[in-house]
Design goal:
Blueprint: H1 5-20, E1 32-37, E2 40-46, H2 60-76, E3 85-93, E4 102-112, E5 116-125, E6 131-140
Antiparallel strand pairs: 1-2, 2-4, 3-6, 4-5, 5-6
Length: 142
């Protein structure tokens, strides 16, 4: 499936709007949107010191924020005015993303019901393709 340029523009705009508020979402300044189509977004991030814990690995809180934000963007490919509200989010850390590496975040909207949306996101090493982190995210969408 190819990237939808209109969706790509809408999602880029939503990310930039969040960053421009100067609040927590400023952490996503260095996230680069790579693809967007209905129900799916993909982005990259070079892991730099501000994204890391004291061991020089992608901080768990930053990883959770990436899963939250990008899975929400996957949901918003259906309607950019309805980001929903998080009900549950969980991550499994399979391997470390080291400072200086580039990661790819692929997020998908698996299912939308009347009130809930079920989303996933995977964070992989851009060079090796190794799966580093998996995330599940449930949002209230009514």
């Amino acid at each position: 499936m190819s990237t939808n340029k209109c969706l790509m523009s809408a999602i880029e705009g939503a990310i930039k709007l969040r960053i421009s508020k100067g609040i927590f979402d400023i952490n996503f300044t260095k996230v680069n949107l790579l693809a967007a189509r209905e129900g799916y977004v993909q982005a990259s991030l070079k892991v730099e010191s501000e994204h890391c814990n004291v061991r020089g690995h992608l901080h768990g809180g930053m990883a959770a924020s990436l899963v939250d934000m990008l899975s929400t963007m996957a949901l918003m490919t259906y309607d950019t005015s309805k980001p929903g509200v998080s009900v549950d989010i969980s991550l499994s850390f399979l391997a470390a993303a080291k400072q200086g590496s580039e990661v790819i975040i692929s997020a998908e909207s698996l299912k939308q019901g009347k009130n809930l949306a079920f989303l996933t996101a995977n964070i992989t090493d851009a060079t090796t393709g190794k799966l580093l982190i998996t995330g599940k995210h449930t949002k209230y969408i009514a």
